[in-house]
Amino acid sequence: METKDPMSELLSSLEQMIVLTREGMPTALAQNDIMAMPESQRIREITGLQIDEFAQVLGVSVSSVKSWEAKRTKPSRSTQKLMQLSKSNPYLSRDLLN
């Protein structure tokens, strides 16, 4: 029997159901729309950060984030790991901005 982390399952479910808009108000999106988004964009929207804030937290340029979200390039392994940390704890990204 496989044991799953309840927090990870909860975050995954929330990610599929809601995406935060710029105003911080939840907006329901179809699951297909969410799954079609690049992972970096999904994580950025989960954290509620603007592109420039997300870039600052990750230590990359705004153009890098835009390139990931346009699916032109992919983030480095270390950046992907930092994004996964942000995904696990969306408040971490906000804390890193201060």
Automatic annotation (TrEMBL):
It holds the Pfam family HTH_3. Residues 42-78 form the HTH cro/C1-type domain. This is HTH-type transcriptional regulator YiaG. The keyword Transmembrane helix does not apply. Signal peptide: none annotated. InterPro entries: Cro/C1-type_HTH, HTH-type_reg/antitoxin, Lambda_DNA-bd_dom_sf. It comes from Erwinia tasmaniensis (strain DSM 17950 / CFBP 7177 / CIP 109463 / NCPPB 4357 / Et1/99). The keyword Transcription regulation applies. Keywords: DNA-binding, Transcription, Transcription regulation. One of its GO terms (molecular function) is DNA binding.
